[in-house]
Design goal:
mainly beta, Immunoglobulin-like, 24 strands, about 350 residues, 2 domains, Jelly Rolls, about 5% helix, single chain, 7-stranded antiparallel β-sheet
């Protein structure tokens, strides 16, 4: 009987010790430490564009290889475009660009003027901002006037609220000169170009015109040889659509010294938000001559002509004044006229 209290006491002491140890082990107290994890983000790599040679896409698409976050978190991107390498003035910027698979791209929302540009990108995750990529560059002008024996006769960006040509109606927008009525056009009088090309960009083109008369993109003619419709040096590029028009829905008419040639294609899938680059090119080709139309760098129409294109006075027009068939809502920019010597 005398051992019973001892056993109870021993059990109580043991329980008390176990509880004390458990509490002591679970209490971090003031002597614990807090670990801070530092997240780093690598700089993205430049993919394209990065060249001093002119590119054809305007607006351009800027592409980088993806950055990586040390904690594996999701990254978005900031892109910047400037006309100086120090980025003292930011011309365009995009934030929150979602990361792609392996590479991430951003296409500028509107066309730029013909110039040299610099760009860079960086990754961002939560509150962590990564390092900028190296500075890359691109040149706009699609090679116009850069070939051997080429001379730029006219360059007109049209995004600066003015034109070096003669403006007849229309209005200027940040994206270029806009056609408001079928009678709006811009005229350039240039020295006679026997071998050369005209290049420009359009936005606002739709599968169907705003009205039946909205179908003349550009034209060339000699005002000293009569009116446009009967002109012996009449050239025009038309954009048409089904009902009321018949195919082909793009037509290229070339009249040189009174002899007419035509070419056509049936492209009609125009997107009003897309920037299209057109080039009308004509030159001697062997024993004959050849005129071609390019759309975004791809030849879409071609024809031969035997008589040299030699107007006494050379008018080149965006839209066509005399016909009153300019394309309503079309916006023109980045025109360049080149002569080959």
């Amino acid at each position: 009987m005398s051992t019973q209290p001892l056993r109870r006491f021993s059990f109580g002491v043991l329980l008390t010790l176990v509880i004390a140890v458990a509490i002591g082990c679970g209490d971090s107290g003031g002597g614990g430490t807090t670990t801070t994890v530092t997240v780093t983000i690598s700089a993205p790599g430049i993919v394209s564009p990065n060249s001093s040679s002119p590119i054809g896409d305007n607006p351009p698409t800027l592409t980088v290889t993806n950055a990586t976050a040390s904690d594996g978190s999701t990254i978005t991107y900031t892109f910047q475009v400037s006309t100086d390498q120090a980025f003292a003035s930011i011309l365009r910027q995009a934030d929150g660009i979602v990361q792609g698979s392996g590479q991430t791209s951003w296409t500028l929302g509107s066309a730029l003027g013909l110039d040299t540009y610099f760009w860079r990108a960086r990754g961002i995750s939560a509150s962590t901002v990564g390092s900028w990529s190296v500075v890359a560059q691109f040149v706009l002008g699609t090679g116009a006037g850069t070939g051997a024996g080429e001379t730029v006769v006219v360059t007109d960006v049209l995004t600066n609220g003015m034109t070096v040509g003669r403006q007849f109606g229309g209005s200027f927008t940040p994206n270029g000169w806009r056609v408001n009525t079928n009678g709006d056009f811009i005229r350039y009088e240039v020295p006679t170009i026997v071998n050369g090309y005209v290049e420009w960009q359009n936005v606002g083109l739709t599968p169907r015109g705003a009205n039946e008369a909205s179908h003349m993109l550009m034209g060339m003619w000699d005002p000293t040889a009569g009116g446009f419709r009967s002109n012996p040096f009449r050239v025009h590029l038309q954009k048409l659509w089904n009902n009321p028009h018949n195919p082909p829905f793009m037509r290229f008419r070339w009249i040189s010294q009174g002899r007419e040639e035509e070419a056509g294609t049936n492209f009609t899938n125009w997107n009003p938000g897309q920037v299209y680059t057109f080039r009308v090119d004509w030159r001697p080709s062997g024993a004959a001559n050849r005129a071609r139309v390019f759309l975004d760098g791809m030849e879409i129409m071609s024809l031969g002509y035997n008589r040299a294109y030699q107007p006494n006075t050379h008018f080149i027009e965006l839209g066509i004044g005399e016909r009153g068939e300019s394309i309503i809502d079309a916006i023109y920019s980045n025109l360049i006229i080149v002569r080959r010597d």
